[in-house]
Fold this sequence. Notes:
The protein is mainly beta. The protein has a single domain (2-111), classed as Metal Binding Protein, Guanine Nucleotide Exchange Factor, Chain A (Beta Complex), CATH 2.170.150.70. It contains 1 helix and 10 strands; from the N terminus they run E-E-E-H-E-E-E-E-E-E-E. It binds zinc ion (2 copies).
Amino acid sequence: MKASCLCGGVKFEIEGQFEYAGYCHCTECQKFSGSANSAFGGLKKEQLTVVQGKELMAYYTKYPGSHVAFCSRCGSCLLNEKIDWDTTNIRLGLLDDATENEPNFHVYVAYKAPWHHWEDALPKFDELPE
Ligand SMILES: [Zn+2]
Ligand SMILES: [Zn+2]
């Protein structure tokens, strides 16, 4: 799969499929995305290659060991990861191709935006499940 930011400056290639995909409603994702939640897919770090625009990628450290990445030219949210974990969570809105792993759960629903209402049959977790 291929993925890119709004300006096209940052381009990714993804090997294989996501390990998991879901919606995160935590307050950090609300702020980072400027929206109600973030749709994300989890990858092993070696599945994700930056093929263009590495120099445009800027990082914000949320707390020691955990950062988010965004495009410094267009501001697109790119990914979040814990530095010593072997997985990275990329924002699904960046995908240029369809994915077989559509989001199939909601996490941090306890923190959802009070104005955001939706109905679906997917599992909902107040926090992060095991
Ligand atoms: Zn960009
Ligand atoms: Zn979140």
